[in-house]
Here is the input.
Amino acid sequence: MSVSSPLWISEAAVVANMDIGDAITALKKALLAEARGEAKNMMKTHVAWDSSTLHAIGAVFPNEGFAGTKTWAHTPGGATPLLILLDSESGSLMAIIEAFALGQLRTASASGVATNLLAVKDADDFAMIGTGKQAMTQVAAVLAVRSIKRLRVFGRNAERSEQLAARVNQEFEIETIAARSVGEAVAGASIITVATRATEPILTAGMIAKGAHINAIGAIVPSRAEIAGDVLERCSHIVVDSVPQAQKLSRELMDFFGAADQEGWEQVRSLADLVAAGESRGASDDLTVFKSLGMGISDLALGIELYRKARAEGVGREFAHPEKAAPRLRRDVGQTV
Here is the structure.
């Protein structure tokens, strides 16, 4: 096959060719492109049924020659996300990337970028709320940007909390404790990450020490919420990956600020703006929060880097371009509708 044949990049190839540091670097580059107007985000959309949701996000990097979408169905039985990369000039297929690990790296890298800007420089006490599939990469992202000495983890299932604590301790060799409640986990913590499927707020202002930074990443549809309004009242910086998406999908922010045309939304900043300005927290700031909903620019940022590495190093499986075919316009004799 020719070099231009599309690539199928597997989960194994993704994890072999990108770590959390690579992901953070790729995302920072993409956020700067977004701030310059060189990357455009497609509004995230979803539809729900029973206890499942179908999602689609996308973006375009015209200067880089890439467009793409990621889609997945989140069901009780699991999910199989796929990222499709297209040539932004010809529309031709460039790659299909199995995107389960990529999605974890994408979400974690956003937390890493935000934490690096908004957490106090000497932050060393970290709380991880949630023990699901995002937990380990979220821990890795914070450890990539701050020298953490102690971590407390909490999840609804005590056994899973203990398992996560043991895994973190073994992987990163830092003191890790399984807490018995959200309050116990976050008490005195300078960085807090919340990655749960909570449908009502579980983190309130009275639990949180002055000067803490919070990454809230679990509530990505309006049916969910993790942080209470009194937390937002204390925030000197409220940062999101995409302001338009937050106005549509974040119940926490919609309840706090009201409709998208309300003046309160003016204090909500995009992560791209923060990165481009090189801003960080001030000495007198109280809480800061990064609200992550997931956006196509983040997925494409990582996907583009993986694709380029795959091309350069011969990674991935080439396959034939889809062949166009004309639709049948007449039915066979004897067939009826």
Summary: The radius of gyration is 21 Å. The CA atoms of residues 56 and 71 lie 4 Å apart.
